[in-house]
Design brief:
4-stranded antiparallel sheet, alpha/beta, homodimer, about 35% helix, 6-stranded mixed sheet, about 25% strand, binds adenosine-5'-triphosphate
């Protein structure tokens, strides 16, 4: 359902050029649960952003659900993102002036789901992450981990066919991480494709496949050699 | 050097009242390395913000280095913060339109250190966190873990007598977390007091004392009973 071939991504500004992904080739079947690991700065978030159609790439081909992504115009890309992809961002990306319930509601409204359906999904999602008591809080009135859970609830409410999760438990204690991983497994068992970036080997162990990114490349873990900080 | 007695903190808005710290009493000696753990939403960041004079409290007394904090005016609080306290925030708090080197420079300028001294400290701090090659990047051009490392470099460059670190390795892979914990230990060995919030039991194990926060209270870990999500 996801085919990347020779994908490269360079961030260019007047002063800098950073090669974030190099010759990236990957085949993901529908319904897989993939953990993506790698050092800080190695390209994991970039990989998720390109996969989620949030960022462009410079070389190579990317086919999502049989569609050549480079053939899509902005509207079509937007529609695929809203209907098929759910994103849990590394920095949560909550809307500061919307309360918790409205933040969870945003992608549901994009999909024009009926009001009653949206309401039920929000109730259920907030309860599942333990934040029903906070539906009227603003993001600034929440702890780091609570904000992360709102981002997770937002994706659960949408029930998309692909979930792209960037460090979904980075700000959570181990009990809560365990709960969240349980939720992702449940969602996966219903057929959702989950691609999750994580630094935690325990979380990675719950996926059924592990990818390692090193300096913008996909590598086999047996061939990884410890490298200096960069 | 840090004495809290019966400190309580309530966040109040027109709609909500959240008791974030309850009857908090704590004695920290100069030069201790303390790890603070607890579930998401339990009050850890609030505790650090109150300790670091970034937030007020409603009840109780707080004495920092022999000074009753409630007697200080804004200028005096500002000066203590700039000269004595270094903060590594849970969400990094980098200034978006300053590059990496200038972000590290900010607290050094507040202290009016001479230009050559500041330059050397910045060089050393960036090298120590492995980001010398990124000194001209803007925060938006950095990965999550790179932004976290800039926040760490900013504190290292200032060499304050108290470091308050809120989840300093939350976005870092295990190799990098290990490096950062090594840096905090080194700094501690030179006499710095370190109070570090962490979800990682491995990081907590490197401190010489562990505190547990539960629903706004300081508790003894033997008496903690698993509680439902909130
Ligand atoms: N500005 C605010 N206004 C209202 N309530 C707040 C505010 N900031 C925090 N809170 C509430 O205070 C409580 C403690 O928050 P705090 O950020 O200290 O938790 P934490 O232990 O750091 O959590 P985490 O591990 O998720 O970062 C939470 O219930 C949170 O919702
Ligand atoms: N907008 C940008 N402009 C320029 N360079 C960027 C930009 N975003 C990321 N980079 C660079 O691309 C590389 C990969 O970044 P990415 O965010 O994908 O890393 P990551 O693996 O997610 O790291 P982390 O584990 O620290 O979150 C890094 O070297 C980073 O500095
Ligand atoms: Mg990242
Ligand atoms: Mg916190």
């Amino acid at each position: 359902m996801l085919k990347m071939k020779g994908v490269s991504k360079i961030y260019r500004t007047e002063l800098l050029e950073t090669q974030a992904l190099r010759n990236f080739s990957l085949h993901v079947k529908a319904g897989e649960f993939i953990a993506v690991m790698g050092p800080s700065g190695s390209g994991k978030s970039t990989f998720l952003n390109v996969t989620g159609l949030l960022d462009s790439f410079n070389e190579g081909t990317y086919e999502l659900d049989g569609v050549d992504v480079s053939r899509l115009n902005d509207n079509e890309m937007s529609r695929i993102r809203n209907e098929k992809i759910g994103f849990i961002f590394q920095s949560f990306n909550l809307i500061p002036d919307l309360d918790v319930a409205d933040n969870v509601d945003v992608p549901l409204r994009y999909r024009r789901l009926p009001a009653r359906d949206r309401k039920q999904r929000i109730e259920w999602a907030l309860e599942t992450v333990g934040l029903s008591g906070r539906r009227h809080h603003l993001p600034s009135q929440l702890s780091g981990g609570q904000q992360q859970r709102v981002a997770i609830a937002r994706v659960l409410a949408g029930d998309p066919c692909i979930i792209l999760a960037d460090e979904p438990t980075g700000n959570l204690d181990s009990a809560m991480s365990h709960e969240i991983m349980g939720l992702l497994e449940e969602v996966h068992e219903r057929g959702t494709t989950v691609i999750m970036v994580t630094h935690s080997t325990e979380c990675a162990a719950r996926a059924n496949r592990q990818l390692h990114i090193f300096d913008g490349r996909l590598v086999d873990v047996e061939r990884v050699v410890p490298m200096p900080l960069n």
